[in-house]
Amino acid sequence: MGIFNSHFDNQMLTKYSVAFGTLFKDMTLVRKKADNTEFERYVIPLSYSIKEKFIQRIKSDPTLTRKENVTLPRMAFELTGIQYDPTRNLNNKKLMAAFNANNPNNKFAYYSPAPYNIMFNLYICTKTTTEALQIIEQILPAFRPDYNIAIKPHDDTMTSNTLDVPISLLNETYQDNYDGDIEEERQIIWTLTFLVKGYIFGPIKTNPIIKQVEFKIDEYSQINETTPTDLVTATFTVVVEGKTLEEIYETDNWSIEEIFS
């Protein structure tokens, strides 16, 4: 038997990957003439790819003359690892709730998420140092030290839930094959390593909102206070004038009524 009784797929790692890639989408490189006037504005392509395949695809067309292949500069990113972060640990027995937009009589219930550090690498490949530095300068100022993004961890029915996720730039490495074989085309590759402080959620269940509580009270006689004489049922219920119990929602202006029997 698995850890949980039912299958769930919150797709949190996919959402972190998409959010991270979106940060670098549509970055622009400006090429200038010798007199510093602009003659071309180029949107840098971005893809999800591991470094080896990224480099291999570029090397398959070293002259960059085939239109169906890649052009430089180009960027790629990949998820390189995840690690549990005990410093951000929450009480795993704490039950949390979120408003259900589709059914006001129910709420989504789930336990505190597990904190994980998610590592991403961003690869930047150019033909010249000038182009590489121009791209790097567009990225570095945003991370001092973190860049926060808001992620919606669940679907649109859980309207009250957003997650504030900080992204940190850990280090930058530089690789230049200028000193390689004379036949080899020059490639400058920067690798930026990022840390995303995210959370991974477990299964999410739908539970009805509690609107009525009923319990029994023992009434003791004045003669013998140790012996209960009667059992009285006490009911506490939410009340809104003109509405049945089923029609009362959490967002209504309700009051509590005590009923004894």
Topology of this structure?
Blueprint lengths: L11 H12 L4 E5 L5 E6 L2 E3 L2 H9 L14 E11 L10 E5 L6 E6 L2 E13 L2 H11 L6 E6 L11 E14 L11 E13 L4 E4 L3 E9 L7 E12 L15 E6 L1
Parallel strand pairs: 3-4
Antiparallel strand pairs: 1-2, 4-7, 5-6, 6-11, 7-10, 8-9, 9-10, 12-13, 13-14
How many individual β-strands? 14
CATH topology-level fold name of the largest domain = STM4215-like
CATH class of the largest domain: Alpha Beta
Enumerate the spans where pLDDT stays under 50 for 5 or more consecutive residues.
none
Q: What distance separates the N and C termini? A: 46 Å
CATH superfamily name of the largest domain?
Myoviridae tail sheath stabiliser
Radius of gyration computed on alpha carbons: 30 Å
In the CATH hierarchy, what is the architecture of the largest domain at level 2? Answer: 2-Layer Sandwich
| Spatial ordering of strands, largest sheet | 3-4-7-10-9-8
The biggest beta sheet is recorded as: 6 strands, mixed
Percent helix range = 10-25%
